[in-house]
Design goal:
The structure holds two protein chains of two kinds. Chain A is mainly α. Chain A is built from three helices and no strands. By secondary structure, chain B is an alpha+beta fold. Among the domains of chain B are: about 45 residues, Uridine Diphospho-n-acetylenolpyruvylglucosamine Reductase, domain 2 (2-Layer Sandwich); about 100 residues, Enolase-like, domain 1 (2-Layer Sandwich), CATH 3.30.390.50. In chain B, about 30% of the residues lie in helices and about 20% in strands. Chain B has twelve helices and twelve strands. In chain B, the strands form three sheets. In chain B, strands 4-5-8-6-7 form a five-stranded antiparallel beta sheet. In chain B, helix 5 runs antiparallel to helix 8. Classes of the chains: A mainly alpha, B alpha+beta.
């Protein structure tokens, strides 16, 4: 909501499922089309990685930029929590 | 509602027995066949689900890889040995479709996928010699931006849409088949047929034969390999043209070169003629241009896709130059 990551909401459940799965795939080290280095450990989270990996989920309202921002924020918040726990 | 029988095959032999029934088709990830059933283009009486068959990736005795036919595209692309030894293949797979589709799609299904030609996919309103032999081809005078410039016939100019198959063709992959008369192995470059006067026949698979595995020969030492896909949007779109290249340089000279094109022909197009010209030559712009032009000498562009000739030349020039270590 903070990032206007939706308008009509029709695609939102799919966007959320894909975002969760996509972040897990990155954590597991799976490369994507935009990954520069195919070597193990070469995969990280970035706006371009998120855009590429989320490309199978279309938003006809055009909220893609907000969706990317929202995913990045959730990812960063989780990282901060993980570091605090460690 | 579409009614059909559904069976799960427990082994390759089981699959072969089930598929022998008239009107039965093999089902992999279903990312293409199920779509075509919904559109009314495919009408199988029964589906034989083969996703429980081999999905392992194992080293062969000769140092290559044997990839089970049911291996998912995403598992292949992410596999450590594939990324390390066959980066061209990983890159090509990752260029195709979307994450969700790659998670479902299988090796064999990728080979067997049908064309995305608009008229093949428009059952209600179009003539298509591939879908309905002898009915005509509406692509010839219609929307043919995505159609073939090489290897087509006047009956059909549909392209094979796979990215993965382009890399497999470049890497000399072999397709393992099992049929009623036994096993056989077909080179990837010979697996798909050109349309000629039978565009409905797309592969050399005989009735009742199934794909059991894809074999990669031992990986040659390449200096660099690149897969570049040019498309109408940055992701999740089929290729207008794509170029897969792997090069081993010997100083300034090209020691070994593999070159294949996608999006421009009815099959993954291994550019043997261009390879032959470039083998042993210096990687100069003139040599590269001459080689790609020789490969494209037989090109027959259509009204809507003539741009592909120049687009392919420029893409190939850039990709080969970069792979050979020059500035593109």
């Amino acid at each position: 909501m903070e990032h206007d990551g939706l308008q009509c909401g029709y695609c939102t459940p799919g966007q959320i499922c894909s975002a969760v799965a996509m972040l897990r795939e990155i954590a597991a080290g799976a490369p994507s089309y935009v990954t520069d280095d195919l070597a193990p450990g070469g995969v990280g989270v970035s706006p371009s990685e998120i855009r590429e990996r989320m490309s199978g989920n279309l938003c006809r309202c055009g909220a893609h930029n907000g969706i990317i921002d929202a995913i990045l924020q959730v990812y960063c918040d989780q990282q901060v929590k993980r570091e605090a726990m460690a | 509602m579409i009614r059909f029988d559904y069976r799960r095959a427990s082994s390759s032999d089981d699959a072969m027995t089930l598929i022998a029934q008239p009107g039965y088709r093999l089902l992999g990830g279903g990312t293409n066949l199920v779509d075509l059933m919904r559109k009314g283009i495919e009408h199988p009486l029964g589906l034989v689900d083969v996703t429980a068959l081999s999905d392992t990736i194992e080293e062969t005795a000769t140092g290559g890889l044997m990839i089970g036919a049911a291996t998912r595209n995403s598992a292949l692309a992410a596999h450590d040995l594939v990324r390390e030894r066959y980066p061209l293949l990983s890159r090509a797979v990752l260029a195709g479709a979307s994450g969700q589709i790659r998670n479902m799609a299988t090796m064999a299904g990728n080979l067997m996928q049908r064309t995305r030609c608009a008229y093949f996919n428009d059952q209600a309103g179009s003539r298509c010699n591939k879908r309905q032999p002898g009915s005509g081809c509406d692509a010839a005078q219609g929307f043919n931006r995505y159609n073939a410039i090489l290897g087509a016939s006047n009956m059909c100019s549909a392209t094979h849409p796979s990215d993965m198959c382009v890399a497999l063709a470049a890497l000399d992959a072999r397709v393992h088949l099992l049929g009623p008369v036994g096993e056989r192995v077909v080179a990837m470059v010979d697996f798909h047929r050109l349309p000629g006067d039978r565009p409905d026949l797309e592969t050399v698979l005989e009735a009742g034969e199934i794909i059991t595995a894809i074999e990669l020969p031992v990986a040659p030492v390449f200096t660099r390999s690149i897969y570049r896909k040019v498309r109408d949007r940055a992701s999740y779109a089929f290729a207008l043209v794509s170029v897969g290249v792997a090069v081993r340089m010997e100083g300034e000279t090209i020691g070994d070169l593999r070159l294949a094109f996608g999006g421009i022909a009815p099959k993954p197009w291994r550019a043997f003629r261009a390879e032959e010209i470039l083998q042993g030559s210096r990687a100069t712009q003139a040599a590269i241009d001459a080689a790609v032009e020789a490969e494209l000498a037989a090109a027959v562009p259509l009204a809507g896709n003539a741009f592909k000739v120049e687009l392919l030349k420029r893409t190939a020039r850039a990709v080969i130059t970069e792979a050979a270590g020059g500035q593109s």
